[in-house]
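Narrative progress, year one. The postdoctoral researcher (J.K.) led the effort to move from monomer predictions toward full complexes, under supervision of the PI. The following entry was the first complex the group processed end to end, covering 441 residues in total.
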Amino acid sequence: MNLKPRRIIDPRTGKERVVGVEEQLTKLEKGVLFDAKIISKEEDGQNFPADDRSRT
Amino acid sequence: MMEKLRFRIGAGGIGQEVIDLTDTGPVPQKSSEELRELRSKEEFFPDAQERFENTLEEHGYELVRELENGYQYPTLDEWVALKIERGEGWARAYPTFIRGKETGEMYFAKVRIKPKERQIGRGFAGEADVLDNMKGLPAPRLIEYIPEDEHGKRLDMLVLEAIKFSEGSVLMPQEWTPATARNAVRTIKEMEKTSPDALPEHFFEEPSETFTSLLERTQYAQDPSMQTVLEDVAHQYEKYKRQVFIHGDMWPKNVIVGLDNDNPSIKLVDWELAGLGYKGQDAGRLWWGICANNQIHSEASYEFLRAYLEEPATEEQTARRAELQFGVAYEVLWRLEDSKIAILSNKKASESEIARARTELESIHKQAYSMLEMIKNTTPTDTRF
């Protein structure tokens, strides 16, 4: 799917960063409610590479 | 053509924007017929949505689609379509958020949407056995386990505590820190001391899978030197071999790390493979995951290694070294079982599939050699970082 990352405020660091869709999905699939403050939708940006062995 | 999938996922505080997975560009769509065919090929229950709704209704839950601030979560059918679109038709479970009608509390639910034969390990029943019987595990709270019924009206469902991202989360390999790695090792070492006696009897049956059977089965993907290395590692481990309670799938994606950067809490999820296993297995798998994506020489990777080797006596340190080598070797064998590599055993595989498998294999071997080398050459007091 052609999905885009989002710029958020990371609750871990309190700083802005780009979070990829893979990361968003990873968290949700493991029972983490994605409650980060979203700043904007990104056109481009760092996206964490997809892991190859998720076994959900 | 089926209607364009439009749903939003996420949850959070007041005034946050919507994460819409499909509003950002062209989404390759499959026709209803193609989708039905793929659903059937992947063995997704055709009536899963209905059975899921029955399960919720009978047990006093409701699906949380519209989350508190307007976020929308996909229904089961939408989720299956999304997984197929993403080439992840192997998914066995629908992860979702539900609410207790009486309590109003939000929970995380995992719903099995394929036949029992497709589940991993002991499935949700096994996970529930572990979470219910083994008190004090670093795990989300078990709310309840609902088995599927023999009439095919309900689905196998595990209801667990939901965790907020603002409290803890899964980390990507690049996000692992030395403190996280150290605390993860501490968790592994504490779990080793946990008595498995409270587990039901079937947890103590002889495992059908052993290191030797894996080694034999994956010979098609081993070069002679790697095979010798793996056999040597197993031989060295014999002296220290000990069965302990393990998580069994301690991959970074199954580790929820708390927000305290200096002393982060560690919770593990997905306990379907938990039970008796060999010392070093959890550590091998987790360290492999921390080293993935070129993070092998990261601070977190070295800290994990140092913390694992750290023991008061030299003999204990030697044992740890042998255990971790075994854990890495076990992980290598498990990875060779991956369908991307297993294609090498398929005589009908195309040249491009074989080439891809060889590249993947090369990368596994490279990582394995580097990790085994690091174990040999690192001491608990190493100050490389």
